[in-house]
Design a protein that fits this description.
Number of helices: 8
Largest sheet: 2 strands, antiparallel
Strand content: under 5%
Number of domains: 1
Order of helices and strands: HHEEHHHHHH
Distance between the termini: 54 Å
Helix content: over 70%
CATH class: Mainly Alpha
Oligomer: single chain
Strand order of the largest sheet: 1-2
Radius of gyration: 18 Å
Structural class: mainly alpha
Length: 228
């Protein structure tokens, strides 16, 4: 889904660049509340894992491609603010060292695949936690649901950006069908990977998973009340 240089017009690229800059600024402040001495090293591992999974590209159509995104996974593991910073670092490295996504489209890619997937993924995750049983074992299914939804939503946002400022002559209906259809399938695969990744960490060190903190805090409170 990396957007290349020139695929969107200048006003759209500038607008998404501003959105990306504001989002990163907010994330820098929010990350201070999410990270501590135990979880900070996990942020580097998350960025590395997302970078590796994004190397698996699936051709879509006319200058676009789809791949695993990882925004929901990052948000659940290290928090939405830190997760966005991890995603931004990944896109910056891909852009500068691997020419994956254009330099003028860096803000677009951060907004599209970073902010959208993190915000949507975290919202779906918290919504799933609200309706699922308050158990640690439910963290992984909630994360999988977040990943499943975030990927096709990101593809729909891409279509909206193209409709607003696309410079390549592609029929909008054809692009929508290709992007949403392919990324729905990719979302299923990403949901499975997210479930396995989050589940494996929760099984051994649930305290390291940001998305499990509220469940663990509630469980600790229940234990203390029962002891009293």
């Amino acid at each position: 889904m990396h957007v290349p240089d020139g695929f969107l017009d200048a006003p759209t690229s500038v607008a998404t660049g501003v959105v990306a800059a504001v989002g990163i600024g907010i994330a820098l402040r929010g990350a201070r509340r999410e990270l501590d001495d135990r979880t900070a090293p996990l942020a580097g591992l998350v960025a590395t894992f997302v970078f590796a999974t994004q190397m698996l590209n699936f051709p879509v159509a006319s200058g676009t491609s789809g791949h695993l995104l990882g925004g929901a996974l990052a948000a659940v593991l290290v928090g939405p603010s830190t997760g966005l910073l991890c995603m931004a670092v990944v896109f910056l490295v891909q852009c500068l060292l691997f020419a994956d996504g254009g330099i003028t489209a860096l803000g677009t890619n951060i907004s599209l695949m970073g902010i959208v997937t993190v915000v949507v993924g975290w919202a779906v995750f918290r919504g799933a936690q609200a309706v699922l049983p308050k158990r640690v074992s439910m963290v992984a299914p909630a994360a999988a649901a977040a990943a499943l939804v975030s990927v096709p939503v990101a593809s729909m946002v891409f279509v909206a950006l193209y409709a607003a400022g696309g410079t390549v002559d592609i029929p909008l209906g054809q692009l929508t069908t290709a992007m949403v259809g392919v990324h729905t399938l990719i979302g299923i695969g990403e949901a499975a990977i997210t479930f396995l990744a989050v589940g494996s960490i929760v099984a051994v060190r649930p305290d390291l998973v940001y998305g499990a903190r509220r469940v663990l805090a509630a469980r600790t409170l229940q234990i203390r009340e029962s002891v009293r």
